[in-house]
Amino acid sequence: MNQFMERALDLAEKNVRDGGQPFGAVLVKDGKIVAEGVNELHHTYDISGHAEMLAIRKAQSELQTHDLSEYTMYASGEPCPMCLAAMYLSGMKQGFYCVSIETAAEAGLGISKTIYTDFKKSRSERKLSMQQIPLEKEQENPLKKWQEKQ
User: Fold this and answer.
1) Which of 52, 102, 136, 138 is catalytic?
2) Is this structure's pTM higher than 0.90?
């Protein structure tokens, strides 16, 4: 097995021993570990405290960049939709995982599978209702202001 995946799995196992969930992640560039993370929800009560998210935050903070296009994520479990979106937004082009979302769901960690399934539905059929409230004519459009500054 790849040394970086082994490290992600070691982090996940240690996190379980510490009372957390079985998720660890390692962010790598040029054959070197740049940042690591484990799910910290049990410590921080922050729903975004996932292993991949924390590794990305650490790297971006230390490197002072949003661009992680030259980096690769190794995760003990298939990234949830939030973590996958963060990987996309950071420009990452490659990631590896060990345990699938389906296997995690069978073990009682099924929220990611539920969300991925929900995303395939039309907006009106999703469990989380999201409705647009259009700008009023007299309101300034922040998107337009941003475009003007570019």
Assistant:
1) 52
2) yes
